[in-house]
Amino acid sequence: MGEAVRILVVDDELHVRTSLAIWLREEGYEVVTASSGAEALEMISHATPDILMVDIKMPGMDGLEVLRRAKRISPEATIVLMTAYAAVDTAVQALKDGAYDYIVKPFDPEHVSRLVRKAAAQHAMVSENRELRDRLEAALPPLVAAAGGLMADAVEQAEQVAPTGAHVLIEGEPGSGKELLARHLHAHSRRILGPLVRIDCEGSTDALLAELVGQERGSLPAAEPPRRGKLELAHEGTLLVRALDCASLPVQHALERALATRKAIRSGAHAGVDADFRLLATSSRDLETLVDEGRFSAELFSRLRSCRIGVPPLRARAEDIPRIAADFLEHLARQAQRPVVALSAEALSVLAAQPWPGNVSELREALRRAVDACDGTRILPVHLPFLPRRRDPAFSLARMEENHIRQVFEMFGHDVVRTASELGIEPVVLEEKLLHYGIRRP
Fold first, then answer.
1. How many C-beta atoms surround the C-beta of residue 76 within 10 A?
2. Per the domain annotation, does 142 fall within a domain?
3. Domain, as residue range, for 356
């Protein structure tokens, strides 16, 4: 059966440990035993088994406590609890705490065999999913977030909400990395094995609607087969909607209907098709303001408003520039099959002094141009003639703070409490800064 599945049997009764070990070894499993919860946890800390079979009633540490502690050490461990007391409440609690299943003493060897085969298959699937997740994350472009920086806060928010399944609105300036954060969120979600389907809302209404919902044969030229829409393709996965603030009202309503019914109806069709997806949407404008102006669906916004993540502009996170530049230069070197070009300290100072209105996208284009101009192994300021060499007085520390506060304040609809929370300061401090910089609500 390939590499043997390793099982740890934990029971204070010697004859139970011995009997199970004999049966399971005859099935081809590798079996080790422990006589107490403390001994089992010590063994797990050195080498985690694939499956744990743990007795619930043991002196000292009971099986439920072993389960909870084992899950903290190895969250992916597959755990089966054993009990002579078929108490439903205990079994339910065990399953809530992460047990795969439970089995009642005295054991039927056939029942044990079937249950362990199922547990081994479950563990293999979890391991394969983790391996796939790791490969997918490795394939993603690097999401740079220096520890303690503003982008690190956005990444932490994304990773906290990723497993919940909630729909998410990611807000920020164009080019700031919203789509990359959305892909990072999908990679950490329970829908990781499902499709990640992307649609860009910067386009004509008719074309977008056809792309979103699909088209039935009757609405197409006779020779063409039906076209599946993005809603249908995203079933059991994630739909990444780019520039949702640019979507027309008909496109917004189609999205809202699909979220409400978990169905999509192709153009020209009468019956719906399954469309159970998680929505991740990006926006460069405040949707709440668009709702007030009648340009955005209040119903669709209500599905997104409880989970909003702001992506800070690059000028507010200059600490990330060296890593972003290094990663992108390495990527360019791989593409061109040439040695990696490094940034000189002087060139890095020039980059750090820029306002970057185009954010990360603009930085990467600047680096691409610098690499094309560089015939050595180091980028110097001379290779960046299209960027100012001296720090612009307009980008003093105070002016950068003012600009950042103004942008975040606008992003959160001029809500003082939410803006202060995003900036990591008290509302009263924010009020003082708004007064100092002359920033007023519209």
1. 12
2. no
3. 314-394
Query: Of 18, 2, 16, 87, which is closest to residue 55 (Cα–Cα)?
Result: 16
∠ Cα 327 328 331 (to 5°): 90
The rounded percent of the chain whose pLDDT value lies above 70 is 88
pLDDT of 186 over the 60 cut:
yes
Asked whether the whole model's pTM tops 0.85, one would answer: no
Give the domain CATH number at 155.
Answer: 3.40.50.300
How many domains would you assign to the chain?
4
The segment with the largest mean pLDDT, out of 65-74, 129-138, 175-184, 333-342, is 175-184
- Shared-domain flag, residues 244 and 348: no
3-class SS letters over 170-208 = EECCCCCCHHHHHHHHHHCCCCCCCCEEEEECCCCHHHH
- Evaluate whether residue 48 is within a structural domain: yes
Residue 344 burial by CB count (10 A; 0-12/13-18/19+): exposed, middle or buried? middle
Is residue 255 domain-resident?
A: yes
